[in-house]
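Customer escalation, tier 2.

The customer says the design service returned an amino acid string that "doesn't look like it belongs to this structure." They asked us to rerun it and document both sides in this ticket. The original structure tokens are below, unchanged.
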């Protein structure tokens, strides 16, 4: 058995999707399509929020931060994946691998934290509509965004740092990107701290963030029930609908992928890898579509730019 002691000078080999290596070229088509859809969709939302003063509200500023996190995650994942599929470029230096891991997982933590902040935003919009702009000032939105960034850095930075202390017995990673657990499994010796810390981050991020989101929506429902007007109830629920859809497309694929990875022993490896990629890319692709459909302000701004371009 060959043991690699100095991770800084190592090169890992990304296998891609195990069992579907011969189909990589065909699989690149949907992945490339999702990549361009993510760039166009998220880029459009960011452009609209940046250029339209009427969209400089707390909800849209938080949405813009969510789009940035989605773009960072996508840009860390897809270019290397497409190089692997198109040019069979499987090699990735250890430091590059750890950097990719940091940005992919870090952006996921930031995204989750921003969804909590957006749940708080919807809570204030429903419970305190008259004081909405006073409570959720631009400075508070900035602090919430900074807090999400700090959370992502603090929680994810130990992952590559802990990996650098390992010796590695294998260098072929059966994955399309440097997933934390996939790299940990390449190590030999005492990998238990890495495994425990990875589980701790999952439980803290998904568990705590979902708990806070659930608590916010419990308070929102309590406020909605007290409304006397049917129109007011519909308006309050419609205010939260886009955020609820985003929560579903973010957490459901992630939880499903996590559960199948741990208990789905009869599921083929390529299914696990495809799920791991989809749970990262689907939210980034669907978020702009959901907000574009559900939010009238964004629809109106998009139509204005489209008709301005044709006039």
């Amino acid at each position: 058995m060959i043991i690699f002691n100095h991770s800084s000078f190592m090169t890992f080999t990304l296998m891609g999707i195990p069992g579907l290596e011969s189909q990589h070229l065909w699989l690149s088509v949907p992945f490339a399509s999702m990549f361009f859809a993510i760039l166009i969709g998220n880029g459009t939302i960011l452009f609209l929020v940046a250029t339209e003063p009427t969209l400089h509200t707390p909800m849209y500023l938080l949405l813009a931060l969510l789009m940035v996190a989605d773009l960072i995650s996508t840009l860390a994942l897809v270019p290397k994946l497409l190089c692997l599929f198109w040019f069979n470029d499987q090699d990735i230096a250890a430091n590059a691998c750890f950097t990719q891991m940091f940005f992919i997982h870090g952006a996921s933590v930031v995204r989750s934290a921003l969804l909590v902040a957006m749940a708080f935003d919807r809570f204030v919009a429903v419970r305190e509509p008259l004081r909405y702009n006073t409570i959720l000032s631009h400075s508070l939105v900035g602090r919430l965004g900074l807090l999400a960034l700090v959370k992502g850095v603090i929680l994810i930075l130990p992952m590559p740092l802990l990996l650098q202390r390992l010796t590695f017995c294998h260098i072929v990673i059966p994955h399309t990107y440097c997933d934390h657990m996939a790299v940990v499994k390449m190590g030999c010796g005492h990998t238990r701290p890495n495994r425990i810390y990875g589980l701790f981050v999952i439980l803290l991020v998904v568990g705590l963030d979902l708990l806070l989101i659930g608590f916010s929506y419990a308070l929102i429902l309590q406020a909605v029930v007290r409304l006397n007007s049917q129109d007011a109830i519909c308006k309050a629920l419609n205010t939260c609908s886009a955020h609820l859809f985003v929560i579903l497309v973010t957490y459901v694929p992630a939880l499903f992928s996590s559960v199948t990875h741990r208990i789905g022993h009869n599921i083929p490896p390529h299914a696990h890898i495809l799920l791991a990629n989809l749970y990262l890319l689907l939210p980034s692709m669907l978020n702009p579509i959901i907000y574009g459909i559900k939010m009238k302000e964004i629809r109106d701004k998009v139509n204005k730019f489209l008709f301005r371009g044709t006039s």
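Tier 2 assessment: The sequence is consistent with the input. Residues 13 and 91 are 5 Å apart (CA to CA). The first helix runs from residue 24 to 51. Sent an explanation to the customer and offered a walkthrough call.
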